[in-house]
């Protein structure tokens, strides 16, 4: 049985206590999307401003929830702010891969493709280091939905702001 | 005097460890554990008399039919129903409530009508009415909940004016509040409305008498009262059931079928299409026997004492760090305690407790309108039953401090 220290890493607690990019953006022009976890009632609201070049110029996170959903959304906001929409989409895919590689039976297929995504995180932007702290979540399967809530909500926001053509 | 330690020993699930610690099960409002006797009764059914019911002419088919009909009589006696033909078996309480909405509501509700429910209802007593209201165009009215966890009945007459049904829980699954069903039934009847009582949290814990309540419908479920999952109960007065159209169509619920149509079976079988849950009925009957042997008054006494101990212990240990919702007086509530602890999110509280083998529920408890009224997005919920004791509460109170240690700001 994994211990709580695997789940509640210091960096996660830091983002929970001091969430980054917390607040609202005026919508419109910002795109606003809401995500719910029907299991526990957690809510995440994502606001993004995307400029004509497809750059995420600003992001804000609202809503409420547990330490995992809130810290994950906070880390996510820091990781995508100032980045391009395609980069953010890749990051979402990579993060969701990270959340599934150890638990084939609950969604991920544990395939090489998933591993490859994880490796690309490691070799990518150093900002992604924080996100690695969430790896322990996969040892607590019921919390995976908490960790991915903000990311799924961001994915919706990106689709609205910059539809895939 | 009931030997509560011996009772606890009857539950095999509680003999195992979880995460290296003895399992402390504090989630009986969600589903209860099952005594060995219930498990054995169901196994025995499959090992000795399993056959389809109401249609076989051979010995074990007759015995299986006797088993489900005997269970129906046991359920009827348990709630003091005048007749066992007023007891309809359903999949669960949710299906029973949907049956009332679809069958009774479908035939009796339309534009200009109203159904009254309360803010403390489980989603199972909200969503079926939302669904039907969108088709039929009747109005859904809400009894508010006050800060002390009780219903606000100050405008009850206004809400019931022109209403055809009051559908309300006898005990809140979040607050533990016991509602004044007899008074509500009298008020509903004075306005010409019927009353449907959601007894899912009440029937497992308090002696239930549908006639004394003045109820027209009573809905509850087997799995919260030591019985198996997969069987629920709808009780309704015979003349109401007689007048209701069938719910699901199929075998068992018909007397005759032709190319032109069908005629329905008698109540209650009119509402029981298809092969029923015979083993589950046998399990439920065994659970009722088990509860009757303890005595429902003893069950209630134990839970009031344990609830009082829990309220006192959590307050003494954690003071202002803990907010416990619902009535403060144990006699006015069941053993369901929803709390918010030291600004730690309930999901995180449940995670920390799980490490010590303590099972609680975290979240909105399928009662989102109530949580909005309480002004909290989620709570942790402890719910007690006959196998819980003071040591469970002590361990809970002790372990909560660990949540505080991890999450203190």
List keywords for this structure.
heterodimer; A: 165 residues; alpha+beta; Sufe protein. Chain: A; three-stranded antiparallel beta sheet; 7 helices; 3 strands; B: 409 residues; alpha/beta; Aspartate Aminotransferase, domain 1; Aspartate Aminotransferase, domain 2; seven-stranded mixed beta sheet; 14 helices; 40% helix; globular
Layout of helices and strands, plus pairs?
The complex is a heterodimer of chains A (165) and B (409).
Chain A: H1 4-7, H2 10-17, E1 31-36, E2 43-50, E3 56-64, H3 67-80, H4 85-98, H5 112-122, H6 129-132, H7 144-161
Antiparallel strand pairs in A: 1-2, 2-3
Helix pairs in contact in A: 2-3, 3-7, 4-5, 4-7
Chain B: H1 4-9, E1 17-18, E2 21-22, E3 24-25, H2 36-48, H3 59-78, E4 87-90, H4 93-108, E5 114-118, H5 127-136, E6 139-143, H6 156-160, E7 163-169, H7 181-190, E8 194-198, H8 210-213, E9 217-221, E10 232-236, H9 238-243, E11 254-257, E12 262-264, H10 278-294, H11 296-318, E13 322-324, E14 336-341, H12 346-354, E15 358-359, E16 361-363, H13 368-374, E17 379-383, H14 390-407
Parallel strand pairs in B: 3-15, 5-6, 5-7, 7-8, 8-9
Antiparallel strand pairs in B: 1-2, 4-10, 9-10, 11-12, 13-14, 14-17, 16-17
Could you describe the 3D structure shown?
The complex is a heterodimer of chains A (165) and B (409). With 165 residues, chain A is of the alpha+beta class. Chain A has helices spanning 4-7, 10-17, 67-80, 85-98, 112-122, 129-132, 144-161, and strands spanning 31-36, 43-50, 56-64. In chain A, strand 1 (31-36) and strand 2 form a beta hairpin. Chain A is globular and about 50 Å long. Chain B has 409 residues and is α/β, with parallel strands linked by helices. Chain B has 14 helices and 17 strands. In chain B, helix 12 crosses helix 14 (390-407). The longest helix of chain B has 23 residues, at 296-318. The N and C termini of chain B lie far apart (47 Å). The model of chain B has no long low-confidence stretch (mean pLDDT 96). At the A-B interface, helix 2 of A face helix 12 of B.
């Amino acid at each position: 049985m994994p211990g709580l220290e695997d789940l509640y890493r210091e960096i996660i607690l830091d983002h929970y206590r001091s969430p980054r990019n917390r607040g609202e953006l005026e919508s419109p022009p910002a795109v606003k999307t809401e995500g719910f976890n029907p299991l526990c009632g957690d809510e995440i609201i994502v606001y993004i401003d995307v400029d004509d070049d497809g750059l995420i110029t600003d992001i804000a996170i609202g809503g409420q929830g547990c330490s995992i959903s809130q810290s994950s959304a906070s880390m996510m906001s820091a990781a995508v702010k100032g980045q391009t929409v395609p980069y953010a989409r890749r990051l979402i895919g990579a993060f969701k891969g990270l959340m599934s590689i150890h638990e084939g039976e609950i969604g991920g297929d544990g395939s090489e493709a998933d591993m490859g995504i994880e490796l690309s995180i490691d070799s990518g932007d150093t900002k992604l280091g924080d996100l690695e702290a969430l790896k322990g979540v996969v040892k607590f399967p019921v919390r995976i939905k908490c960790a991915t809530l903000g990311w799924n909500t961001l994915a919706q926001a990106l689709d609205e702001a910059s539809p895939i053509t | 005097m009931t030997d509560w330690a011996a009772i606890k020993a009857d539950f095999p699930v509680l003999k195992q460890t979880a995460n290296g610690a003895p399992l402390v099960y504090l989630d009986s409002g969600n589903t209860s554990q099952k005594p060995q006797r219930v498990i054995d009764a169901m196994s025995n059914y499959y090992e000795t008399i399993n056959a389809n019911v109401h249609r076989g002419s051979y010995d074990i088919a007759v015995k299986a039919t006797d088993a489900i009909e005997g269970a129906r009589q046991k359920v009827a006696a348990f709630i003091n129903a005048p007749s066992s033909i007023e007891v309809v078996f359903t999949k669960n309480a949710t299906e029973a409530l949907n049956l009332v909405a679809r069958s009774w509501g479908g035939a009796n509700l339309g534009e200009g009508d109203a159904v009254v429910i309360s803010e403390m209802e489980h989603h199972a007593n909200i969503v079926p009415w939302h669904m039907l209201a969108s088709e039929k165009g009747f109005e859904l009215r809400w009894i508010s909940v006050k800060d002390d966890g009780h219903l606000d009945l100050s405008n009850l007459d206004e809400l019931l004016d022109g209403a055809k049904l009051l559908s309300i829980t006898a005990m809140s699954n979040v607050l533990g509040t016991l509602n004044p069903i007899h008074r509500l039934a009298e008020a509903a009847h004075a306005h010409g409305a019927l009353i449907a009582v959601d007894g899912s949290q009440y029937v497992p814990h308090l002696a239930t008498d549908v006639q004394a309540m003045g109820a027209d419908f009573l809905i509850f479920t087997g799995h919260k009262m030591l019985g198996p999952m997969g069987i629920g109960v709808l009780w309704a007065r015979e003349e109401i059931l007689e007048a209701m159209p069938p719910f699901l169509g199929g075998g068992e619920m018909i007397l005759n079928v032709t190319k032109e149509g069908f005629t329905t079976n008698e109540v209650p079988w009119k509402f029981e299409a298809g092969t029923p849950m015979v083993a589950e009925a046998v399990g439920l009957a065994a659970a009722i026997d088990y509860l009757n042997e303890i005595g429902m008054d003893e069950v209630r006494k134990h839970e009031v004492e344990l609830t009082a101990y829990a309220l006192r212990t959590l307050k003494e240990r954690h003071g202002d760090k803990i907010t416990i919702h619902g009535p403060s007086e144990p006699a006015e509530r069941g053993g369901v305690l929803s709390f918010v602890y030291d600004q730690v999110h309930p999901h995180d509280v449940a995670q920390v407790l799980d490490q010590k083998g303590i099972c609680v529920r975290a979240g909105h408890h399928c009662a989102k309108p109530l949580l909005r009224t309480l002004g909290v997005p989620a709570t942790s919920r402890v719910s007690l039953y006959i196998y819980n004791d003071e040591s469970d509460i002590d361990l809970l109170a002790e372990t909560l401090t660990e949540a505080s240690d991890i999450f203190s700001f």
